[in-house]
Design a protein that fits this description.
Layout lengths: L2 H7 L8 E4 L5 E3 H17 L7 E4 L5 H12 L3 E4 L6 H11 L3 E3 L2 H8 L16 E7 L7 E6 H14 L8 E3 L6 H14 L3 E3 L5 H8 L4 E4 L1 H9 L13 E4 L6 H11 L4 E6 L3 E5 L13 E2 L4 E5 L6 E6 L11 H7 L7 H4 L2 E9 L5 E6 L4 E3 L2 E3 L1 H9 L4 E11 L3 E10 L3 H11 L8 E4 L13 H7 L8
Parallel strand pairs: 1-9, 3-4, 3-5, 8-9, 8-10, 10-11, 11-12, 22-23
Antiparallel strand pairs: 1-2, 6-7, 12-13, 13-14, 15-16, 16-17, 17-18, 19-20, 21-22
Helix pairs in contact: 2-3, 2-5, 3-5, 6-7, 9-10
The protein binds adenosine monophosphate (AMP).
Adenosine monophosphate (AMP) binds next to strand 12, strand 17 and strand 18.
C-alpha cells in the first residue's frame, strides 16, 4: 500500500480539525493539508516527476514542506530531504548522487505556485518494497550514503510506534524538530497523522515557545539537547509538564543525569528510544512499565536484535525486521558489507550491522555503550570525523588533522580538531565554517607536533579525547 493511503486513512473524518497549530495562534486543518498536498502532487506531475523519481528538498521547516512530502508519496516519487545547513558544495554531491527529477529549495514558494491547480486525487499504487524516501546519512569515507526506505518499512515503523506510545486522537504533539531527519519527519509526523492529532508546530527549539507549547500539548519528541535546555530554564517546572502524557527522547544518548534531573523537576521519566536513519526506530522504553535511566529499552515488536559479542558482554548490535532499509542507494558493495550473510538475499534474510556497540540484559533491555566508529553526534546530528578531516587537510598551513567529539554541555558532543600545522585557531575555524555546515565545523582547534598513533599507524583518537576532554566543559 502507498504510505500516503495509510496516513490519509487516519486523518480525522472532520477535515476542519486542526493539523498544524501555529505560533501566531492560527491553525491549518487536515483538510487544507490534504488539499494542498493534492495540488502539489499535480504540480510535481506537471513538472514531469514520475514514479521512482527523486525529489530533493532542502527547505526551511514549514507546513508546506510537509504538504510536499505527502505530495511526493502520493505520486510514487522518492522524498529526499537534505539538512538545511548543507553548503552548496555539499549539496552538489547529493544532486550528483541522487539524480533528482526536481530540486526544491523553497516549499512555500512551490505551494504558492500550486495554489490554483486542481488537486490530484488519485494515489499512485505502491508495494511495500517500493522506495518512498532516500535519507542521506554521513559516511566514514566522507561520502554520505542514501538509505533507501520503502513504503512498507515506514508504514510498519509508524504503526509500531503509534501503538507502543499509545497515541490517540486526543493527543497534541509538540513538534520542534527539524523535518529533514527521520526523527522529525517520520517518527513525529507519522505518529500524529496515524492519530489524526494536531501538532504544536515550531520551527525549532526555543525556550519560550516550547514552554508555551507544552501548556497545550500532551506529547513532546526531542533530542537530548531539548531536555538539557528545558532543565536549564528555571521557568520549566512540574506545573509546565502537568498535562503532558509523555516526553520522548532519542537520536543521541541521553545522559543518566539528565534523566534523573528531569524526573526530579518534572515528576516524569523521559521515555528514551533508539533509532537510526537505516531503520527508523529500533528499541524503546515502555510507555507502561519501567523506564530505566541509561537504557534504550526493548526491541520494538517485529524487530529481531542480536549482539555480536564474540563471547563477551557487549558487541555490535545487529537488527532485522520490517523497518530496516533496503540498502544504500547505488552502493551495492557497501550495502553487502553492512548486512550479515545469513541468508540468500541480503535484505530479506541478513541482519543489518548497526555499528552501535551495546549489550542486552537478561530482561531484554538494550544498553548502548558507544559507537563502533568514531561518529560524533553534535546536537543530535551525526558528524563523521573523516569528512571534516578531508576539508581541514586542504587548508593552507595544515599538514594533518584528527577530528574528535568532545563532551559539550549543550550539544552533547562538539567537534574539535587536533592539527599538525601552522596558523591560528580562529582562522582555521573560520575557513572550516565557509566550507562546512556550522554543526560540522570544529568549534576548537588544538595544535600539536605529532599525533598519537598505534602500532598499525592509526591515530589513537581515544587518547586525544582524553587529553582535550575538558575543552568545552569547565571543571
Ligand atoms: P541517525 O541515522 O542520524 O539517526 O543516527 C543514528 C545513530 O544515532 C545511531 O546509530 C546511534 O549511534 C545514535 N543514537 C540514536 N538514538 C540513540 C540513543 N537513544 N542512545 C544512544 N545513541 C543513539
Amino acid at each position: 500500500m502507498n504510505l500516503y493511503d495509510l496516513l490519509a486513512s487516519r486523518f480525522p473524518t472532520d477535515r476542519t480539525a486542526p493539523c498544524f497549530l501555529l505560533p501566531d495562534g492560527g491553525a491549518i486543518s487536515y483538510g487544507t493539508l490534504e488539499l494542498c498536498a493534492g495540488r502539489l502532487a499535480r504540480l510535481l506531475a506537471r513538472r514531469g516527476v514520475g514514479v521512482g523519481d527523486r525529489v530533493v528538498v532542502q527547505t526551511a521547516k514549514s507546513p508546506e514542506a510537509v504538504m510536499l512530502y505527502l505530495a511526493t508519496l502520493k505520486i510514487g516519487a522518492v522524498f529526499t530531504p537534505l539538512n538545511t545547513a548543507y553548503t552548496e558544495a555539499e549539496v552538489a554531491y547529493f544532486l550528483e548522487d541522487a539524480e533528482p527529477a526536481l530540486v526544491v529549495r523553497d516549499a512555500v514558494a512551490l505551494a504558492a505556485e500550486a495554489a490554483g491547480l486542481e488537486p490530484l486525487t488519485e494515489v499512485t499504487p505502491r508495494d511495500d518494497g517500493d522506495l518512498a524516501s532516500l535519507i542521506y546519512t554521513s559516511g566514514t569515507t566522507g561520502r554520505s550514503k542514501g538509505a533507501m526506505l520503502t513504503h512498507g518499512a515506514l508504514a510498519a515503523n509508524a504503526q509500531a510506534l503509534h501503538q507502543a506510545w499509545g497515541f490517540t486522537p486526543d493527543d497534541v504533539l509538540l513538534h520542534a524538530l527539524p523535518i529533514f531527519h527521520v526523527h522529525g519527519l517520520f517518527v513525529a509526523l507519522h505518529c500524529a497523522f496515524l492519530s489524526g492529532a494536531p501538532m504544536v508546530w515550531l520551527d525549532k527549539y526555543e525556550d519560550g515557545p516550547v514552554l508555551a507549547g507544552l501548556a497545550r500539548s500532551t506529547v513532546m519528541m526531542g533530542v537530548p539537547t531539548f531536555y538539557t535546555r528545558l532543565l536549564a530554564n528555571p521557568g520549566f517546572t512540574r506545573q509546565s509538564a502537568a498535562h503532558m502524557r509523555v516526553f520522548i527522547c532519542g537520536s543521541a544518548p541521553l545522559l543518566e543525569s539528565t534523566f534523573r534531573e528531569f524526573e526530579a523537576r518534572a515528576g516524569q521519566r523521559i521515555l528514551e528510544r533508539y533509532g537510526m536513519s537505516e531503520a527508523v526506530i529500533i528499541t524503546s522504553n515502555p510507555l507502561d512499565g519501567e523506564r530505566v535511566a541509561g537504557s534504550v529499552g526493548f526491541p520494538l515488536p517485529g524487530v529481531e536484535l542480536r549482539i555480536d559479542t564474540g563471547g563477551g558482554e557487549t558487541g555490535v548490535l545487529q537488527i532485522r525486521g520490517p523497518s530496516v532499509f533496503q540498502g544504500y542507494w547505488r552502493m551495492p558493495e557497501k550495502t553487502a558489507e553492512e548486512f550479515t550473510a545469513d541468508g540468500f538475499f541480503i535484505t530479506a534474510d541478513g541482519f543489518f550491522i548497526t555499528g552501535d556497540v551495546g549489550r542486552q540484559d537478561t530482561d531484554g533491555r538494550v544498553w548502548i555503550s558507544g559507537r563502533a566508529k568514531d561518529l560524533i553526534i553534535c546536537g543530535g546530528y551525526n558528524v563523521y570525523p573523516k569528512e571534516i578531516e578531508l576539508v581541514l587537510d586542504e587548508l593552507a598551513g595544515v599538514t594533518e588533522s584528527a577530528v574528535i567529539g568532545l563532551p559539550h554541555p549543550d550539544f552533547g558532543e562538539a567537534v574539535a580538531a587536533v592539527i599538525i600545522g601552522t596558523g591560528s585557531e580562529a582562522a582555521i575555524v573560520a575557513a572550516a565554517r565557509e566550507r562546512l555546515a556550522a554543526f560540522k565545523a570544529p568549534k576548537r582547534v588544538f595544535f600539536v607536533d605529532e599525533l598519537p598513533r598505534n602500532a598499525m599507524g592509526k591515530v589513537q583518537k581515544n587518547l586525544l579525547r582524553e587529553t582535550y576532554a575538558g575543552a568545552f566543559t569547565p571543571p
